[in-house]
Amino acid sequence: MWYQQTLTLKAQPRGFHLVTDEIVSQLTSLSAVRSALLHLLLQHTSASLTLNENCDLTVRTDMENHFLRQVPESAPYQHDYEGADDMPAHIKSSLLGTSLLLPVGHGTLLLGTWQGIWLSEHRNHGGGRRIVATLQGE
User: Fold this and answer.
1) How many Cα atoms within 13 Å fall on the side-chain side of residue 69?
2) How far apart are CA 24 and CA 54, in angstroms?
3) Can you give the C-alpha Rg of the chain in angstroms?
4) Mean pLDDT across the stretch 47-55?
5) What is the DSSP string of 9-71?
6) Could you report the per-residue pLDDT of 74-106, keeping only the tens digit for each?
């Protein structure tokens, strides 16, 4: 069985946001599968998806601070006509990636105890984000 749909995530401020529940709540076919793979593709170049800590907010704050130091907005980028946060957002998106492949069993994501899906918003005002979710299994 194959199932595909486009999900919409609400706009978030710059930072790392736990979006597991927001994604799962929109996956209408998830409960119908016994064993599957879920591929998530974020359709944007200035945000990213990653799998990480789902409990302690300070992990997300530390990640944001790390990327602000490692990919500064003050660097002399040539691509700057969309704002000082745009080119650094593209770099961060490439470093973290825009897709995840996750196992599904008996209608639920098979994540570790402390794992959650993060939307990494790298722009000051990125807006709503779209994810193409493709579910393959039985």
Assistant:
1) 5
2) 14
3) 16
4) 98
5) EPP-EEEEEE-HHHHHHH-TTGGG-SEEEEEEEE--SSEEEEEEESS-HHHHHHHHHHHHHHS
6) 999 999 999 999 999 999 999 999 999 999 999
Sorted by sequence, the CB contacts under 8 Å of residue 107 that are 6+ apart come out as: 30, 31, 32, 33, 34
| pTM for the model | 0.96
Structure tokens at 124: 């000051």
List all residues 6 or more positions away from 13 whose beta carbon is below 8 Å from its beta carbon. Answer: 121, 124
**What 3 state SS string does 61-121 have?**
HHHHHHHHHHCCCCCCCCCCCCCCCHHHHHHHHHHHCCEEEEEEECCEECCCCCEEEEEEE
In this prediction, residue 21 carries a pLDDT of 98
